[in-house]
Design a protein that fits this description.
The chain is of the alpha/beta class. It is 36% helix and 18% strand.
Length: 380
């Protein structure tokens, strides 16, 4: 064996196989052409992966053995491994899932009548450090691949189909509001979203796939050219001073820039669709009448609907959930000003699956966990 051959062989052993769960229809068509195969095979392959949940490429019986062999040489079907599952008293489910990195992340399913919303993670941990979010305190490990993002939809549908065989499509909505900041992982989020909305994938309406962001302006600019999925922005404050305390990325991309690019994105959505503004209400921090009034002025003529989220407590946050009276008063001011405003019902709190509570088990590359341990111990 020559040195060159040995190097190629070693590289092949090091390089992981392609994960076909993260391949869009267009990517499959391009791969097939490169392999000297017909691109019409792409729909057949995608149906095996996303409609029949096949794990073994060799069992794709309507494509040739030759093509199956080529595919098996290049790639695999790598559904993320479920480590554990918890079921809330309200029916919410939380799966602890292992990433290729070895760290664990979480996926949450929230049933509501005939509707079922899957809250999907895009990163292991989070690179941002919003003060009211437990995920951010875990630090950051890595981006999830497109296959690992799509794989969460696949594993949820498979698991729920066993329990509810008469309702195969029980996951009707997907929100990228789990662990991580989706717009810091767009190279993987965009193909994953495309697969979710493709009829050959999971056939979920663009109205029912929502990408959430803490305000990564360049990412929203890129979304304008790439997708028309629904968009939610985590605002949480009506002015830059307060928002910079709660959402540190605001120091780089202040509210004016954020709303400006969101207006541009809203033109992709058509007249009957709007941006969702998420606002976590924290007792005595951003829930006062003057904050509601300021928010009304800020969002004047901004095409949006508003979701109010009563803060979900976690150990060491230092924050409290506002009273029901304060929440209703805040909502009433917004409704009186003409905004479509809903209060998000807290779900899965008994299993730490509520908004802002997801943590997983993150091998932290930012040393943020160490920082917060030192703060809690009074060292710094």
């Amino acid at each position: 064996m020559t040195d060159t051959t040995a190097q190629v062989k070693q590289q092949q052993e090091i390089q992981p196989k392609l994960d076909f769960l993260g391949f869009t229809r267009g990517q499959f068509e391009s791969l097939l052409l490169e392999l000297g195969e017909k691109p019409y095979r792409a729909p057949q392959i995608m149906k095996w992966l996303h409609h029949r949940w096949l794990d073994d490429i060799n069992e794709m019986t309507d494509i040739s053995m030759t093509l199956r062999s080529k595919l098996m040489e290049l790639g695999e079907v790598h559904e993320p491994e479920v480590v554990s599952e918890k079921l809330s008293i309200d029916g919410t489910r939380k799966w602890l899932v292992k990433a290729r990195s070895g760290s664990l992340f979480e996926t949450v399913f929230i049933p509501e009548g005939p509707r079922g919303t899957l809250c999907v993670s895009s990163q292991v941990g989070c690179a941002l450090d919003c003060s009211f979010c437990s995920t951010g305190k875990q630090g950051f490990n890595s981006n999830l691949t497109a296959g690992e993002i799509v794989g969460q939809v696949r594993l949820a549908r498979k698991a729920l189909a066993v329990e509810f065989p008469e309702r195969q499509r029980v996951v009707t909505n997907v929100v990228l509001m789990g662990m991580g900041e989706p717009l810091l992982n767009l190279d993987n989020v965009l193909p994953a979203v495309e697969i979710m909305m493709d009829d050959l994938g999971y056939g979920i309406s663009k109205r029912k796939v929502t990408i959430s962001t803490a305000g990564v302006v360049p990412g929203i600019e890129r979304l304008c050219e790439a997708t028309d999925a629904s968009l939610a922005i985590s605002l949480h404050a009506p002015n830059d001073e307060l928002r910079s305390q709660l959402v540190p990325i605001n120091r780089k991309y202040p509210i004016e820039k954020l709303l400006e690019v969101c207006r541009r994105y809203a033109t992709n959505l058509g007249e009957k669709r709007t941006i969702t503004v998420e606002y976590t209400l924290i007792d005595k921090i951003n829930d006062q009448p003057e904050h509601a009034e300021e928010l009304v002025q800020l969002l004047d003529n901004f095409p949006c609907k508003i979701n109010l989220i009563p803060f979900n407590p976690f150990k060491g946050s230092g924050y409290k959930r506002p009273s029901a009276v304060a929440v209703r008063a805040f909502q009433r001011r917004l409704v009186d000003a003409g905004f479509s405003t809903m209060v998000r019902t807290t779900r899965g709190e008994d299993i730490q699956a509520a908004c802002g509570q997801l943590v997983g088990e993150v091998v932290d590359k930012t040393r943020r966990q160490e920082k917060y341990r030192r703060i809690a111990a009074g060292v710094i």
